[in-house]
Amino acid sequence: MADFKTHLICGTAASGAAATSLLIAGALPRDAALGCFALGAIGSLLPDVDLDHSIPARVAFRVVSLVGAFMVVLALSPHFSLAELIVAWAASYLALRHGLFGLINTITVHRGLVHSLPAATAFALATVSLTYHLLDCEPRKAWLGGLFVGGGFLFHLLLDELFSVDLLGRRLKRSFGTAVCLGDLRNPLGTLALYAGNWALYRLCPPDGGLWRLLIDHELYRRLALRLLPAQGWFDGLASFAGESLRRLL
């Protein structure tokens, strides 16, 4: 099993690489790139929400709760005063940090129901629904956000499985197979509830706005292949670009 530092570094790097790739291929709008990158990094930490006893995990939960509370404030900002928004932010943070995450930690065991593929889908669909309904995001951008959260979540699970293989000893550790699973046999009712929750969350999501058709389009990957290596010299035009940027700042 990978530790928190490994998940944080690798998850952030993978999210950044995915956001950059989709950006240069034209599938990710520039104004949504930073948000999707952040959501992917957060998603890579979410499988450990059932592990509350470690300091890194508690820090991660606080960050996710802060971001979630800020999303609520953004949704409410056109309708309420600053004082009301401060109260709403505090209430949302407490509800997420000590309510939702506290409940998850109480009713789950580590590497149980939360550490599963349907949990990844649930977090992704919840992101789509929340960003669409609360933040008034376009359907395609909402689905991109959910895709990054789910992708970060899956990357965490795969990284745990990789760390379950002892290459030097040529053996599988006892933890192999416990990271990527379809549910928790120790909690059949919870597993059924999670699948039912996925169905309910999907019903709340908007149409994908053509995102899935775009992601399987051969043209997308052709454009990405064309940008993999420089067409001319390395960093050709960097000096002129830096000079123009400097003139704009001044």
Automatic annotation (TrEMBL):
Gene Ontology molecular functions: hydrolase activity
**Transmembrane ranges?**
7-26, 61-80, 86-104, 116-135, 141-163
Provide this UniProt record's keywords sorted from A to Z: Hydrolase, Membrane, Transmembrane, Transmembrane helix
Q: Does the keyword RNA-binding apply?
A: no
Q: What is this protein called?
A: LexA-binding, inner membrane-associated putative hydrolase
Q: Which organism is it from?
A: Plasticicumulans acidivorans
Per the UniProt record, the lineage of the source organism begins with:
Bacteria, Pseudomonadati, Pseudomonadota, Gammaproteobacteria, Candidatus Competibacteraceae
